[in-house]
# Entry
Amino acid sequence: GAVVSQHPSWVICKSGTSVKIECRSLDFQATTMFWYRQFPKQSLMLMATSNEGSKATYEQGVEKDKFLINHASLTLSTLTVTSAHPEDSSFYICSTGGPSTDTQYFGPGTRLTVL
Amino acid sequence: AQRVTQPEKLLSVFKGAPVELKCNYSYSGSPELFWYVQYSRQRLQLLLRHISRESIKGFTADLNKGETSFHLKKPFAQEEDSAMYYCAWETSGSRLTFGEGTQLTVNP
# Structure
């Protein structure tokens, strides 16, 4: 399978600041990565599909100007939460397809807390 | 809307007892369905997919189109099966829609 890492594992920031979260595919070149958000005691909700070399595709209701996604290489996608507010506090998880196209491999997640 | 539903948030069984985690879907076609599992302090990982009809860690899941269900079953639960289980449905572009999840606790 594929190994996916995220950095940082947790971050605390002040309201109004921007936070960047990295998702790396360590042993597999991923043309597509996915970003999810998980609020406490809730399920994962897909936010966007990150496509290498092109624009991300956002799910309905997700503000693309607030959640900036950059997928500049086959091993790295970044999610930037701009002008973060307390309601953006959540667990952000990325995933990537691996050698087997119908399986997604998940990162460990990043806990964002906005004060 | 097309989605998957897991009606039980919590499920508790004793070791050695059978366990069934329910998943229902609403979709008119042939869905691509998966079960993912998240053990404590670990990342989400694939347990099984309906298309392969495999058994992983003693778990099986059969797609029942008549009942629009994809329940996860294991005849004899083990303590190490305690985890959060998510039913998921794959849409176009390999996008996954997850159910609400069921927290399984297997008591000794």
